[in-house]
Design goal:
The protein has 219 residues and is mostly helical. Helix content is 68%, strand content 5%. It has two domains: 60 residues, Winged helix-like DNA-binding domain superfamily/Winged helix DNA-binding domain (Arc Repressor Mutant, subunit A), CATH 1.10.10.10; 142 residues, GntR ligand-binding domain-like (Four Helix Bundle (Hemerythrin (Met), subunit A), Up-down Bundle).
Length: 219
C-alpha cells in the first residue's frame, strides 16, 4: 500500500468512526504529523477523496470533510433510490439459493440490534454491512462499485442531529419490511419497498430548515 493509499484509508476510517465529521477542516500539517508522511502523499490523498465526493477542496481555505447542499442531497438520493431498489430486486431473485436467506436474516438481526442506539458510528457501519449483504446476495458486483457508500455515510452524519426517535423507529421498521420482502422472493415488491425507503428519507430531509444545509464554500 502506497503512502497516499494509507492516508486515504486512515481519513476514511476516521470519518466512519466519527473522529472527522462533515464540515470539519482537514489541516495538512496535522495529517502529516498524525500519519507520519510528507505533504505530497497527504495532498494526493485529499485530491483522491475530493474526486470521490468525500472531501471538498477550496483554493484559499484548504480541505474540508464534505457537507451536502439541499440540491446535492436531493439529487444523490434520487440516484440512490433507483440503485437500492435494483439491489433489493436482484437479492429477492436469488434469496432462495445457497445460504442467502440465512445471510439476509443475520444481516437484519445485527442491524436491528441498534434499534435503540441508531446514532452511533457502529450503527452506520452495520447499516453499510446490511446493504453490502443485499448486494452480495443479488450477485451484481458492479452495484458495489457504483454505490456511493461514503457519500451516504456522510449524509447520515450530517443530518444525525435532526433524526428524532420517531424517525428512527420508522427507519428500523422499513429495514424490517425490506428484509421480509427480499426473503419472500417477490422481486417487484422488494424493489418498490426498498426504493420507497430512500424516497421517504429524501422527502424528510427536504423538509429540514435551511440551517441543516451549510452553504457551499466557493472554490
Amino acid at each position: 500500500m502506497t503512502s497516499p493509499d494509507r492516508v486515504v484509508d486512515a481519513i476514511i476510517r476516521s470519518i466512519r468512526s466519527g473522529n472527522f465529521v462533515p464540515g470539519q477542516r482537514l489541516i495538512e500539517a496535522d495529517l502529516t504529523r498524525d500519519y507520519q508522511v510528507s505533504r505530497g502523499p497527504v495532498r494526493e490523498a485529499l485530491k483522491r477523496l475530493a474526486a470521490e465526493g468525500v472531501v471538498t477542496l477550496t483554493r484559499h481555505r484548504g480541505a474540508y470533510v464534505r457537507t451536502m447542499s439541499r440540491l446535492e442531497v436531493r439529487d444523490s438520493l434520487m440516484v440512490l433510490e433507483a440503485l437500492v431498489g435494483l439491489m433489493a430486486n436482484l437479492a429477492a431473485r436469488r434469496v432462495g439459493e445457497d445460504d442467502n436467506a440465512e445471510r439476509m436474516r443475520e444481516a437484519h438481526r445485527r442491524l436491528a440490534a441498534f434499534k435503540n442506539d441508531g446514532g452511533t458510528a457502529a450503527f452506520l457501519d452495520e447499516r453499510r454491512s446490511f446493504y453490502d449483504t443485499v448486494i452480495q446476495i443479488g450477485g451484481n458486483i458492479e452495484l458495489k462499485r457504483m454505490l456511493p457508500l461514503m457519500q451516504i455515510h456522510l449524509l447520515r452524519m450530517q443530518f444525525q442531529a435532526y433524526i428524532t426517535p420517531r424517525d428512527r423507529e420508522k427507519q428500523f421498521k422499513e429495514y424490517e419490511t425490506i428484509t421480509e420482502t427480499i426473503l419472500s422472493g417477490d422481486a417487484v415488491r422488494a424493489q418498490k419497498v426498498a426504493g420507497l425507503h430512500i424516497r421517504r428519507t429524501r422527502l424528510s430531509l427536504m423538509r429540514l430548515p435551511d440551517e441543516a444545509f451549510p452553504a457551499i464554500r466557493a472554490s
